[in-house]
């Protein structure tokens, strides 16, 4: 059951208490290893308004679904999860101020989801480190993966290097020789384009990068500049509202060069954002969970994931299934880490996550195995799990290519 409570605050914070269960039939209360029965406080700081709103809304639903599943099975070491959502509008400065307020409150968070964008995450990680609070996000900038500086910061992203290498190998396998890369001039775009350019050149291909203003409403000039180099294929990096701007500008100038979205872009519902037609004939690199699987072939774990999403109002889907799945996995990774550590303290869970024993059955929605290490706080799945698919409508959150 979901309960919603509005808190009176300038930040317009909403608290979502996910499935707080009563005591067991034996009469004992839920407690963690130190005897506390207080809820496990999760603070989601994401841009639920602004240009990444559809992504943030999908992530929030995934956290809610994961929390509902965990709470139904005893919570995190006996503590029921309580999620508070704060709208940062994807503004790193605003996010920093809101986190300061949250950390000084009477109920500081046990876990913080620090942002929908990499810029937010990078702005918030220093505060979480000083306060020794666990932080886990879906943000992809390689700068986030710094265990020495951010020992309590993790991401279920695979970073930008691994998928860039996988995409470069795919491009080479298609016989392309020259590659044009279009990326936003923000943190995600800059880091992503650097990783892509390095990967493309690493497999012996020529790469040219053109950047665009992340707030632009038309990128026709940038596309014309990229086209002047006569690339065999265009790779692009974008999020949310940036995607239709690129695809409609591409259509506007009549450029039909093969076009492939990188993995972070492919995590959006490209077809829906672009209203279909501008996305026709384009492709995207995606997580394995995004490729369509007929209901008759779905695993029981996958069906359970979808059942819990339904309890929090999904469908309709506001983004691709990977966004929901990675959020679900964050909640279950924290649960597994707390169980292994026999503690809900952030530093203890962080240490357990670096040497996580895979639970059986595995609750993960996205990859077959999900682990971190003392030197890598990103997931590191086998690159063969990524897929390049033709962009098409989503069915049950999965891409069903035309």
What is the element layout, followed by pairings?
Blueprint: E1 2-6, E2 14-18, E3 40-46, H1 53-71, E4 81-87, H2 92-103, E5 111-114, H3 118-131, E6 134-137, E7 153-155, H4 161-173, E8 178-184, H5 187-202, E9 206-212, H6 220-227, E10 233-237, H7 242-252, E11 259-261, H8 263-266, H9 270-273, E12 283-286, H10 300-311, H11 321-341, H12 346-353, E13 387-390, E14 394-395, E15 398-399
Parallel strand pairs: 3-4, 3-5, 5-6, 6-7, 8-9, 8-10, 10-11, 11-12
Antiparallel strand pairs: 1-2, 2-4, 12-13, 14-15
Question: In a nutshell, what does this entry contain?
Answer:
With 402 residues, the protein is of the alpha/beta class. It has helices at 53-71, 92-103, 118-131, 161-173, 187-202, 220-227, 242-252, 263-266, 270-273, 300-311, 321-341, 346-353; strands spanning 2-6, 14-18, 40-46, 81-87, 111-114, 134-137, 153-155, 178-184, 206-212, 233-237, 259-261, 283-286, 387-390, 394-395, 398-399. It is built from twelve helices and 15 strands.
Name its key features.
single chain, 402 residues, alpha/beta, Rossmann fold, 2 domains, 7-stranded mixed beta sheet, 6-stranded mixed beta sheet, 12 helices, 15 strands, 35% helix, disordered N terminus
Q: Which CATH class of the largest domain?
A: Alpha Beta
Low-confidence stretches: 1-35
Average of per-residue pLDDT values: 90
The Rg value, from CA coordinates, equals 21 Å
Secondary-structure class: alpha/beta
Write the H/E string, N to C: EEEHEHEHEEHEHEHEHEHHEHHHEEE
Q: Classify the fold: give the CATH topology of the largest domain.
A: Rossmann fold
């Amino acid at each position: 059951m979901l309960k919603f409570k509005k808190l009176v605050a300038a930040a317009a914070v909403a608290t979502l208490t996910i499935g707080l269960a009563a005591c067991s039939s034996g009469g004992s209360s839920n407690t963690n290893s130190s005897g506390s029965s207080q809820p496990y406080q999760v603070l989601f700081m994401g841009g639920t308004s602004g240009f990444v709103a559809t992504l943030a809304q999908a992530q929030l639903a995934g956290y809610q679904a994961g929390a509902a599943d965990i709470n139904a099975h005893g919570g995190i070491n006996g503590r029921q999860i309580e999620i508070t959502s704060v709208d940062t509008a994807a503004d790193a400065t605003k996010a920093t101020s809101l986190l300061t307020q949250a950390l000084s409150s009477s109920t500081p968070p046990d876990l913080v989801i620090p942002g929908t964008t990499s810029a937010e995450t990078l702005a918030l990680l220093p505060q979480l480190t000083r306060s020794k609070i666990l932080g886990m996000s879906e943000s992809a900038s390689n700068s986030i993966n710094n265990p020495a500086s951010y020992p309590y910061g993790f991401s279920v992203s695979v970073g930008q290097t691994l998928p860039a290498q996988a995409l470069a190998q795919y491009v080479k396998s298609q016989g392309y020789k020259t590659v044009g890369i279009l990326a936003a001039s923000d943190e995600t775009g800059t880091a992503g384009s650097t990783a892509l350019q390095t990967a493309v050149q690493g497999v012996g291909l020529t790469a040219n990068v053109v950047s665009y203003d992340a707030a632009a409403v038309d990128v026709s000039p940038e596309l014309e500049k990229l086209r002047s180099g006569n690339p065999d294929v265009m790779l692009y990096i974008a999020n949310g509202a940036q995607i239709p701007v690129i695809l409609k500008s591409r259509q506007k100038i009549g450029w039909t060069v093969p076009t492939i979205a990188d993995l972070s872009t492919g995590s959006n519902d490209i077809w829906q954002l672009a209203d279909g037609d501008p996305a026709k004939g384009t492709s995207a690199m995606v997580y394995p969970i995004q490729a369509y699987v007929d209901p008759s072939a779905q695993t029981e774990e996958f069906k359970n994931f979808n059942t819990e999403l339904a309890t929090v109002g999904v469908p309709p889907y506001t983004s691709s299934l990977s966004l929901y799945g990675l959020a679900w996995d964050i909640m279950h990774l924290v649960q597994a880490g707390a169980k292994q550590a026999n503690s809900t303290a952030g530093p203890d869970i962080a240490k357990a996550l670096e040497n996580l024993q895979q639970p059986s059955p595995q609750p993960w929605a996205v990859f077959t195995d999900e682990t971190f290490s003392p030197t890598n706080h990103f997931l590191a799945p086998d690159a063969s799990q990524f897929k390049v698919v033709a962009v098409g409508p989503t069915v049950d959150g999965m891409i069903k290519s035309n």
